[in-house]
Amino acid sequence: MEGDSVTLNTGVQTNQQDRVRWYYNDVRTAQINRDQSKICTDVQCNEGTERFRDRLKLDHQTGSLTITNTTDTDSGVYKLKISSGSSDSGKIFSVSVHGVSAAEREVKRKEGESVTLYTGVINNTNDFITWYFNDTLIAQISGDQSKICTDVQCKERFRDRLKLDHQTGSLTITNTRNTDSGEYKLQINNSRFSIIRS
Asked: Is residue 104 classed exposed, middle or buried when 0-12, 13-18 and 19+ CB atoms within 10 A define those classes?
């Protein structure tokens, strides 16, 4: 969704590779060498191109690429090319960013009603889904195991009012109270990507 961050994972350590390059619709957008003598993202890689305007982050250890504050114009094909000695390998990521209005991001309920915060994914056993309320961990699901409210403050605040959907990882808050108002953050991780949504 627009405004989310997404990380495209290489699955390697750059100290094992000579060069990691990222392309967006066949235009180089990021690169890192093993000795880190050549590191570039967006503008530095393509002078005069400011498509991502400081929204790209390159992990210096893995070469993984994070796009922050996504927009629908970030949708497209991202190609990863990894060079190691005389061999090349790569991955292709298809990224779709969907628009969302401010009204859709803000959920309003009357006290006593229930609200469900949707992940927008079908959970698979490799996904690790974590929910935070005002930066406090409140729920997580990994495979068929889930935990709700592991700390005392969370247990007191929500007291058996949180439910996790094992198929989607969506979070339902029942019998809402005005103290439930705040920012809820969703983080989805798997071996290929990670997403952060507020």
From this structure: exposed
List CB contacts of 96: < 8 A, sequence separation 6 or more. Answer: 75
Report how far residue 45's alpha carbon sits from residue 23's, in angstroms, rounded to the nearest whole number. Answer: 10
The length of the chain in residues reads 198
The DSSP-derived string for the chain is -TT-EEEE---S-GGG-SEEEEEETTEEEEEEETTSSSEEETTTTSTT--SSTT-EEE-TTT--EEE-S--GGG-EEEEEEEEETTEEEEEEEEE------HHHHS----TT--EEE--SS---TT-EEEEEETTEEEEEEETTEEEE--SHHHHHHHTT-EEE-TTT--EEE-S--GGG-S-EEEEEE-SSEEEEE-
Give the pLDDT confidence of 22-33 residue by residue, as tens digits: 998 888 888 888
Query: Strand 87-95 to strand 27-33: parallel, antiparallel, or no bridges (unpaired)?
Result: unpaired
Cβ distance 2 to 70 under 8 Å? yes
pTM of the predicted model as reported, rounded to 2 decimal places: 0.64
pLDDT per residue as tens digits for the range 169-192: 888 999 999 888 888 898 888 877
Return the top range by mean pLDDT from 36-45, 73-82, 160-169. 73-82
Dist CA 7 CA 61 (whole Å): 14
Q: What are phi and psi for residue 72, nearest 5 degrees?
A: -65, -20
